[in-house]
Structure formats: structure tokens, C-alpha cells
Amino acid sequence: MEVRKLTVGYGAAWVLDQVSLQIGAGEFVGIVGCTGCGKTTLLKAMAGLLEVQDGEILLDGENIFSRRFDRAVLRRKVGMVFQYPEYQLFAQTVEKDVGFGLKYSRPSREEKQERVRWALEQMGFSYEEIKDQSPLSLSGGEKRRVAIAGVLATKPELLMLDEPLAGLDPMAREMFLEFLEGLTGQGVSVVMVSHNVDALAQHAARIIGMKQGKIVMDGSCQEVLGDSRALRTIGLLGSEAAQTAELLRANGVLPGSGLPVTYEALRDEIIGALTGEKGENR
Ligand SMILES: Nc1ncnc2c1ncn2[C@@H]1O[C@H](COP(=O)(O)OP(=O)(O)OP(=O)(O)O)[C@@H](O)[C@H]1O
Ligand SMILES: [Mg+2]
Q1: What's the pLDDT tens digit per position in 234-246?
Q2: Whether residue 144 is found in the same domain as residue 257
Q3: 133 and 162: one domain?
Q4: Which of 58, 105, 165, 204 could in theory staple to 30 by disulfide, Cβ–Cβ 3.0 to 4.6 A?
Q5: Which positions ≥6 away from 84 have C-beta within 8 Å?
Q6: Secondary structure element (H or E) that encloses residue 156, with its range
Q7: Is residue 278 over pLDDT 70?
């Protein structure tokens, strides 16, 4: 997907101001930025859900705003998990809810069931146990996982997730992130908005930083999350590991320059400094 000079406004002010970016197949991109900077608006626009004032969005080379563009293609190829997905559950059973989005790809009955089963299992459910329950009877975190399963079931080529980690317990969170990484290995592009910089540091290869409706940083995870000074200018802090490393460097405990953004990298540096050798790389 390619976004060119996208401009979106609600009323007088621009919420997105000439935003351009490209998402390649199999990329795992994290989007960070202060609350209100336009992250959700960007995702919604990329999912074709908003009126835009200016700019283009190309999906496999076709402008989604063109009159000739078939919107069903967008629904099939692009999936979006909303910031509060649990509010979107409405069907009588979990099975119907998760299968709802499949209507755009018209699968056979067996295929539909298989997709629903697969998606629910990916989100840690037993299909047989959950399928006939009412979505309303589930806990907050379970609702969230069901809602995410509903998007996964459509097997999008581009999966966009807005703060999907809230409401997942630590184990489920880690499994989910690893699952997403697995999807990128199959060529699915994943774009995830999150305030959880540590999770992004572990899993996203590329990070986009936004401030007041503009993209102000876009680079590898190391480039963006290792640049604590630039991050502070957009109101964010680096990963815990990067902050710790910064402190250790400032106090002369750890030599070198540049900040490790993951715990693994920090641990290796510390081991290296203590033993005078290079730590074991993962
Ligand atoms: N439907 C709307 N009508 C008017 N203004 C809106 C609407 N949706 C969003 N905005 C405004 O657009 C700006 C960007 O909102 P957006 O939801 O994209 O921010 P965000 O980066 O996702 O924030 P958060 O981290 O809190 O989710 C905000 O100032 C918000 O008030
Ligand atoms: Mg938001």
C-alpha cells in the first residue's frame, strides 16, 4: 500500500497533514505518537473508512478513491482491528461474529467454518468451547480476542491494528505478537499502533513516529527507538532497555554509543562489559 500526501480534517483543523508512506509486503511496522496525533485517523483512512480532503491511497497500484475502484477488494485485502474492538461484537454467537467479515470473500460453508476455527484458535480459544457462546457473556479480554479473531478470519494481506495489546494478559500478548510476526513471514503486512514501545521494540522492524498529524520519524526500529532525543521531541520515551542503557552510559557504567532497544541487546552489552567479551548474541 502506498499513501501519497494524505490530508484529513474534521472541521477546520487538519488531523492528517500531507502524510506519505509505503507499506511493503511482509513488513511489521509500528506507529507511535502522543495521544491525539492522528494515529487512529491514519489507520481508518488507510482502511478506506474516512472521507479525505486530499491525497491518494494506492492498493496494489489502484487508487482506492477512484470511482472505478471496487471497494470489495479493499474489504478483502485490508483488515483493521479497531482501538476498542470489543464494542463491535453484535452477533448472537461467537461463531457468527467471527465469520461475519467473510461475506466479502464468499467462502464455502466448510471453508468458512475452518477459517473461523483457525482464527479462534490463533487467539487462544478452543473452537468447540467458544463457538456457541454469546459474545456478550465474555470477559473484556475475551471479547477483544474474539473481535481480533473476526479480522484474522478474513486473512487480510494488510492487517492494521490499533492498540491491540490492551486487555491481553502478558502471555497472550507475547503469543499474539509472535503470531503476528509469523504472519509477516507469510507475506502479510502488519501495521500496529501501540503505546507499548517495548513490544514494538521486540517485534516491529520499522517504526513510524507521528506528531500533530505529520510523520516525523520513519526508519528501522533501531534508528527510531534508539534515538531517545528525537523521541522526546514528539513526547515519547524510548523502550525501557534504551532508557536504562542511556542511564548506564551517562554514568559511565556502560561504554559505547548508540542505544540498544531490546532487553536482549542490552543484556548482551552488559555481559560484554562485565566479562570484557562480546555477549552471546541471540
Ligand atoms: N470524528 C471526529 N470528529 C472530530 N475530531 C476528531 C474525530 N476523530 C478524531 N478527531 C480529532 O483528531 C485528532 C486525532 O485523533 P486520533 O483519534 O487520530 O488520535 P490518536 O493518535 O489515535 O490518539 P490516541 O493515542 O489517543 O488513540 C484528535 O485531535 C481528535 O480530537
Ligand atoms: Mg487512537
Answers
A1: 999 989 999 999 9
A2: no
A3: yes
A4: 204
A5: none
A6: none
A7: no
Pocket test for ligand 1, best of 6, 7, 8, 10 (most atoms within 8 A of CB): 10
Nearest-CA residue for ligand 1 atom 31 is 36
Neighbours of 11 (CB within 10 A): 5
**Over the stretch 42-70, which tens digit does the pLDDT of each residue have?**
999 999 999 999 999 999 999 999 999 99
Ligand 1: residue of 7, 8, 40 to mutate (most ligand atoms within 8 A of CB) is 40
Query: To 10 degrees, the CA torsion angle through 182, 183, 186, 188?
Result: -150
Report how far ligand 1's centroid is from the alpha carbon of 162 (Å): 12
Instruction: Say what the pLDDT of residue 279 is.
Output: 47
Nearest CA to ligand 1 atom 16: 38
Nearest atom in ligand 1 to the alpha carbon of residue 11 is: 4
Sign of CA dihedral 262, 268, 273, 278: negative
Identify the band that residue 277 occupies on the pLDDT scale cut at 50, 70 and 90: low
Structural domain that includes position 7 = 2-236
Cβ burial of 148 (10 Å; 0-12, 13-18, 19+) is: buried
Claim to verify: residue 270 and residue 148 sit in the same structural domain: no
pLDDT at 47: 96
Number of domains in the chain: 2
Give the C-alpha distances (Å, rounded to integers) separating 190 from 28, 72, 112, 129, 184: 5, 20, 23, 29, 7
Tens-place pLDDT, residues 198-240: 999 999 999 999 999 999 999 999 999 999 899 999 999 989 9
CB 18 within 8 A of CB 7: yes
- Taking the centre of ligand 1 as the mean of its atom positions, its distance from the CA of residue 9, in whole angstroms, is 10
- Which of 100-104, 142-146, 158-162 comes out lowest in average pLDDT? 100-104
